[in-house]
Design brief:
By secondary structure, the protein is an alpha/beta fold. It folds into two domains: 239 residues, Rossmann fold; 117 residues, Udp-n-acetylmuramoylalanyl-d-glutamate--2,6- Diaminopimelate Ligase, Chain: A, domain 1. The strands form four sheets. Strands 1, 2, 7, 8, 9, 10 and 16 form a seven-stranded mixed sheet that branches. The chain is globular and about 70 Å long. The chain starts with 7 loop residues before the first strand and ends with a strand.
Length: 374
């Protein structure tokens, strides 16, 4: 049996990691529902997964499930997660499950109950090619038109979008257009016009730009507390404080103080009590250094002395203790902060408002195509 022809679909891809694909997907999903459309979601292939109601699911699928209270299970929202060792098996030619068939089956079930199916890719167009499930492969398999998301600038986003569009077109996928994220319209108000003109030379419509917003790039201490598998030594004065920057303290105290930056979350070994104390004392002197930290992520599993902990408490600074070396802890913090989390309601509300105001939703909806009859 074929799918009902009124069920349409769109595939959101990106030119790389952290370009704003999930932000755009979340905002568009909310906008489509606000127009009264029965909208479903699928992340066909996931690389980073979490447990969702007892089943593995891509973390972005879990985000959509939580934010929009979706009733579909993990097998539909996130039909494929790449398990450890699977890539090696494919390269070696061992028998593996037909994952493409699993994705198509999920598409068919989701289409039965919706008017619009929003599909989210994984990374750039070629991610997953090693197992025959690149974004371009999956979009072609599902017969879905693609919108490519990149981020601010002129040359870089155009170069990236054109490169990715070439692979999609090679697979016979319709490139419906592009969206450029994190555009500083105050500093460069002419960018939308230049981007539209530059992309038009390659036959790619610009479907809109999303302006840069600090709140979307600067999450709160609460996300750190909830997302890190560590021990909170002190919660600080306000877990809703927005993190201005991440600083890795790998210098002598006086040099760290010079470079601390405003509202920094400082990643520092827990046994560098000289650095910790120097930064905490900044907050105890109301007339001192203008830039003061928000708190610490203490690496190495080294618990500071009670004297140093008391200084942290008197300064009322957030502090969490983590195992692992400073580099790996810093990388974990970075990966956590660039993601959107269900608990960050302020950020999610801003995403929904920004997408609804900045993008031409009707034009984007017009790019959707019926799911092919099978």
């Amino acid at each position: 049996m074929g799918q009902h022809p009124v069920t349409r679909q769109l595939f959101l891809a990106a030119t790389g990691q952290n370009r704003g694909k999930t932000t755009t997907t979340l905002g568009l999903f909310a906008a489509m529902r606000a127009r009264g459309l029965v909208t479903s979601f699928m992340k066909p292939v996931g690389q980073r997964w979490v447990m969702m109601e007892g089943h593995p699911a891509d973390e972005d699928a879990a985000l959509m499930h939580a934010v929009f209270e979706l009733h579909d299970g993990a097998e539909l929202l996130s039909p494929v997660q790449i398990p450890r060792g699977f890539t090696r098996k494919v390269i070696e030619g061992e028998d593996v499950e037909d994952l493409g068939a699993r994705i198509v089956a999920a598409q068919a079930k989701l289409a039965q109950g919706c008017e619009l199916l929003l599909l989210e890719g994984t990374g750039h167009a070629g991610v997953g090619a090693v197992i025959g499930l690149s974004n371009a492969d999956v979009a072609a398999l599902l017969g879905a038109p693609v919108i490519i998301v990149s981020e601010g600038g002129i040359g870089r986003p155009i170069d990236e979008i054109v490169l990715n569009a070439a692979l999609f077109r090679e697979r016979g996928v319709e490139v419906a257009g592009a969206i450029v994220n994190k555009v500083d319209l105050d500093a460069q108000p002419e960018l939308p016009r230049l981007l539209e003109k530059g992309l038009a030379r390659h036959g790619i419509p610009l479907l809109g730009v999303l302006p840069y917003r600090k709140v979307l790039s600067s999450p709160t201490l609460a996300i750190i507390q909830n997302g890190l598998d560590g021990e909170t030594l002190w919660p600080g004065s306000n877990l809703d404080s927005i993190i201005g920057r991440i600083s890795v303290a790998a210098m002598q105290p006086e040099h760290v103080v010079e470079r601390i930056g405003q509202d920094a979350l400082v990643v520092v070994p827990g046994d560098r009590e000289d650095v910790i104390t120097a930064l905490a004392e900044l907050c105890l002197d109301p007339d001192g250094h203008p830039n003061k930290p928000l708190g610490f992520v203490l690496s190495g599993g080294y618990r500071p002395s009670e004297r140093t902990l008391e200084t942290i408490r008197r300064a009322d600074l957030f502090a969490v203790l983590m195992k692992g070396d400073t580099y790996s802890v810093g990388a974990t913090v970075h990966d956590l902060l660039v993601k959107t989390h269900p608990q960050d309601k302020r950020k999610i509300d801003e995403i929904i408002r920004l997408v609804a105001e900045a993008l031409d939703i009707d034009r984007i909806l017009g790019a959707a195509r019926p799911i092919p009859l099978r």
